[in-house]
Design brief:
This protein is mainly alpha-helical. The protein has 11 helices and 4 strands. The strands form 2 sheets. The protein has a two-stranded antiparallel sheet with strand order 1-4. A two-stranded antiparallel ribbon has the order 2-3. The radius of gyration is 20 Å and the shape is globular.
Length: about 325
């Protein structure tokens, strides 16, 4: 409980220092090495079944290596000294959570737009989204940023905290490995359609419960925030979540986006360009209020309050079990 709470507070205070090495970058290099060895797209005739099997092997190996390395670091730390073990566990927990980093990156876009520097806003937004930002106007950039905060409330905050609370940094890092594989190879395109299918499906599975939990936590956060700011609408958050929570190709992504859209009374989603290709996506939410730059801040408040609620519930459960 001390390590979990310490990691949570470290993430809120400092996030991921860019000058320090990050374990997720190691996971990324491991994934790249397996892709380089197992995905051969140079031949004229590609073997779809073999690519799927190699993708499945990549998932198994990356997950196994992640669990073994994380376990080894924790066991060695606790063998040396129990206090060192707690510190290392707290640091690993901090690395697993991404609330402060998500806030920092999204607020770069907010500040750019506040200063009316749309070119810089497009560049900073391109660091956190996959869509073509050069085609976006001001409102579209705000919408994309709010969507990213809403979606990553689950992927980067609630889900990692959920799994870390269950089985410590080993489970947390395992989740990060699965999520990283999905972000790197889990695409339905010519290159990864078969090789990355296992990674994409595995990510859908591990996010099934956390994404729905995240939406409920965001609705609870909206109820609290509505006591201090009338912009937040808990009733609309519940209504839009129930109506639009499946308005996405992924079974999980629209869960938090719909709760956020309803809470802020704005419309998210819609068509976007990815790599020059127009991708049609359904809308999420109602256009009851014109989207504005301040909605980026409001979405971040929903994220922080949702995380805080889960943290308090987790600490209470652990305390009762002790």
């Amino acid at each position: 409980m001390i390590a979990l709470a310490g990691g949570y507070l470290l993430d809120l205070l400092i996030g991921d220092p860019h000058w320090m090495w990050h374990p997720v970058s190691l996971i990324g290099r491991i994934i790249q090495s397996f892709e380089k060895k197992l995905l051969n797209i140079t031949s004229e005739e590609r073997d779809n079944k073999k690519e799927f099997k190699n993708g499945l092997l990549t998932c198994f190996c990356v997950c196994t290596i992640t669990v073994m390395l994380t376990s080894a670091v924790l066991i060695l730390s606790y063998v040396i000294n129990i206090y060192l073990g707690v510190v290392i566990e707290a640091i690993l927990t901090c690395y697993i959570l991404a609330a402060r980093s998500l806030y920092n990156e999204s607020m770069k876009v907010f500040n750019d737009l506040y200063e009316n520097d749309e070119d810089k806003a497009r560049y900073d937004l391109s660091m956190i989204v996959g869509r073509d930002t050069d085609r976006l106007d001001r409102n579209a950039m705000i919408r994309a940023t709010v969507e990213t905060v809403a979606e990553n409330t689950s992927d980067g905050v609630i889900a990692p905290l959920f799994y870390t609370a269950i089985a410590g940094p080993v489970a947390g890092m395992l989740y990060k490995a699965i999520n990283t594989m999905d972000s790197m190879i889990g695409y339905d395109n010519d290159r990864y359609r078969f090789f990355g299918r296992a990674a994409a499906k595995l990510d859908d599975i591990v996010n099934f419960i956390p994404s729905r939990m995240s939406a409920i936590l965001m609705i609870a956060a909206c109820m609290i925030l509505s006591l201090f700011d009338s912009v937040y609408d808990p009733g609309a958050s519940i209504r839009i979540w129930r109506r639009d929570r499946l308005n996405h190709k992924s079974p999980n992504s629209a869960q938090t986006e719909s709760a956020c859209a309803g809470a802020l009374r704005i419309k998210l989603g819609g068509d976007s360009y990815y790599g020059g290709v127009l991708v049609s996506k359904p809308y999420i939410g109602d256009n009851n209020k014109n989207i504005e730059n301040e909605d980026i801040k409001r979405a971040n408040r929903l994220m922080f309050f949702a995380e805080a609620i889960l943290m308090m519930i987790t600490v209470y459960i652990i305390y009762r079990l002790m």
